[in-house]
Amino acid sequence: MTAVAAALAVEVILLDFDGPTCHLFAGRPAREIAADFRAYLARIGVPVDGADPFDPLALYAAAVVADAGQADAAERWLTEAEVAAAGTAEPTPGCRAVLDAARAAGRPVVMVSNNSGGAVRAYLARERLTDHVADVVGRPHAAPDRMKPAPWPIQEAARRQKVSPASCVLIGDSVTDLDAANAAGARSIGYANKPGKRERFTDATAIVDDMHAIADAIRATHADRTATP
């Protein structure tokens, strides 16, 4: 059994959104959205000093911490920007194959993302993949301490599927994803879609450079199970 197949020997597959599923900000770079977000937060008087000025999620977390009274406004602005981005997001090669293989094998897939659930659902609807996904666990409202790398998203996905986190594997493209999986007690598959990531994914249960490798492993595992008398 390959490392990827071993990592997938669980009940539920958890899939990160921006990266393994699509390039969310393909149509408009995240740094441009971050610049507009900073300007908006400045207009409503929310300081975000010290946050990464080019990362919308970092700005959101800083805004909620700085002024909880404006959390709804910050969430609304960022969600609208993410939903708009979902309309021009580029599908990740091989992700549809993963979802098709999981569906054929009867394996539930839950999207787990620090982006808004609305953006995830908008993308799935656009790509006609809504029925391939059992659930969506998006960014928790006004609770940046629950966003990955915290274990909460993995724990919440497992709770909704009525399994333990140990019965899940998270497919993610960042150390943040892997840290969240490890903190929750789940397995992880690192999607090394850029140079240098493979070397950083030391804590992953398995690593792939191509999402098709995961689809192949799901199909092979399903074939083995159905062939067993």
Secondary-structure element string = HEEHHHEHEHEHEHEHEH
Rg is 18 Å
What percentage of residues falls in helices of 4 or more residues?
40-55%
**Total beta strands:** 8
Taken together, the total number of domains comes to 2
GO molecular function, one term: phosphoglycolate phosphatase activity
GO cellular component, one term: cytosol
GO biological process, one term: DNA repair
Organism: Actinocatenispora thailandica
Verbal overview:
- The protein is α/β, with parallel strands linked by helices.
- It has 2 domains: 3-24 and 91-227, HAD superfamily/HAD-like (Rossmann fold, 3-Layer(aba) Sandwich); 30-86, no CATH class.
- Helices cover 47% and strands 12% of the residues.
- The protein contains 10 helices and 8 strands.
- The protein has a 6-stranded parallel sheet, sandwiched between helices. A two-stranded antiparallel sheet has the order 2-3.
- Helix 3 (56-66) packs antiparallel against helix 4.
- This is HAD family hydrolase.
- Pfam families: Hydrolase.
- One of its GO terms (molecular function) is phosphoglycolate phosphatase activity.
- One of its GO terms (cellular component) is cytosol.
Descriptive labels:
Rossmann fold, 229 residues, six-stranded parallel beta sheet, single chain, 2 domains, alpha/beta, two-stranded antiparallel ribbon, 10 helices, 12% strand
Task: Sum this structure up briefly.
By secondary structure, this protein is an alpha/beta fold. It is built from ten helices and eight strands.
